[in-house]
## 1
Amino acid sequence: QVQLVESGGGLVQPGGSLRLSCAASGSIFSSFAMGWYRQAPGKQRELVADISSTFSTRYVASVKGRFTISRDNANNAVYLQMNSLKPEDTAVYFCARYTSGTYYSQVRSWGQGTQVTVSS
């Protein structure tokens, strides 16, 4: 069973930056697409960014140019660098592992989430 553990959330002022990390257990990490999702209070969980096993990436329009997803297969980790944060980025951020190497597959596993709050 894959375990995903997020870290790096916190309180930041508008315009600030945070880097989220997700540590994954289990083998063959490099074979699976990974993603970051978020859920704000009263809203549905939404995709933020994901990265395939071949390092192809995609982003939701609202974070393009501000967020960067990356992965380190040697350390079984995926990251989300968030710059120019806005209050509307406030949410619980979840790490996800897909069922295959492409992000067009289904999410199989979720982390417990890490809170990101953007406020002055």
## 2
Amino acid sequence: QVQLVESGGGLVQSGGSLRLSCAASGTIFSINAMGWYRQAPGKQRELVATITSGGSTNYADSVKGRFTISRDNAKNMVYLQMTSLKPEDTAVYYCNADLKRLPQLPRRNYWGQGTQVTVSS
């Protein structure tokens, strides 16, 4: 079994900052990409940022320059530092990992349960 557990969400004023963390645990052989996605009420889930095991990053245009994704490969953790938050950043933020549980198994996508981020104006 693999679990992804997010933490760090909450309520913050516009212009404020939050740091999200996600820990992957269980039987894990290797993790390729990890990332953050978000889903606002009435909208589809969208990519926020991803990071490969080598540290290459990709960001949604809406968060470039404000959010920073990072990871600790030794701890199987990924982080999202969010600054200059806007009300439109309000959403449930989900952690995602593309990983192999065992060397003989194919890679699979796993999701966390999500953490709520609310930005007040």
## 3
Amino acid sequence: QVQLVESGGGLVQPGGSLRLSCAASGTIFSIYAMGWYRQAPGTQRELVAVSTSVGSTNYADSVKGRFTISRDNAKNTVYLQMNSLKPEDTAVYYCNAKVRSIATGVYWGQGTQVTVSS
């Protein structure tokens, strides 16, 4: 079994910064990709950023230049540095990982709330 545990959400003023972390644990042979999605009330879950095992990254247009995804492969951890936050970034942020394990598949974290408000 694989677990993803997120941390780092909270309340921040517009223009501020937050750093999210997500650590994967369990029986993990390798991780193909790790990323972040978000879901605001009344909307569908959307991709924010993803990092593959070969080091490539992809971002939603709405966060390019403001958010940075990074990974520590030795710790099976992915980070999302969020700068210049806007009220429209308010959402529950979910960690996602495609993992090669005893039960290979896509796993999700429980979500962490990010609120951008003055």
